[in-house]
Design brief:
This protein is mainly beta. It contains one helix and five strands.
């Protein structure tokens, strides 16, 4: 779906926060505007230097932001409580095999 295409993940991890509690400390964000399933225009912002996604919001009169947590320093403390857009879930995502975890990236085969 749109979030999977935008960030290429199986999961988009976010927290909603009121706009009045959000402050950009440095720099400026770039944004693209897309039409959501509801027909509302959604602005998806990102860092123009590294392309890290920052948040999503209504394109006009945003009173809430969906903060993308991949680049958040506190992400370890923010445990997911529910899943939205489950109908769009990648089929294997809810039944991951136990397998052996890989702690770092594997060497590239040459």
């Amino acid at each position: 779906t749109q979030c999977q295409t935008n960030g290429a993940p199986a999961f988009q991890w976010m927290v909603q926060a009121p706009a009045q509690h959000i402050e950009l400390l440095t720099g400026e964000l770039k944004a693209i505007v897309k039409t959501a399933e509801s027909g509302n225009e959604r602005a998806l912002s990102f860092c123009p230097n590294c392309a890290t996604t920052i948040h999503g919001s209504n394109a006009k009169d945003a009173d809430m932001y969906s903060l993308r947590l991949g680049g958040c320093r506190q992400r370890e403390a923010l445990e997911p409580k529910f899943q939205v857009w489950h109908r769009s879930a990648i089929p294997w995502a809810s039944d991951l095999p136990a397998g052996s975890p890989i702690e770092t990236q594997r060497p590239i085969a040459r």
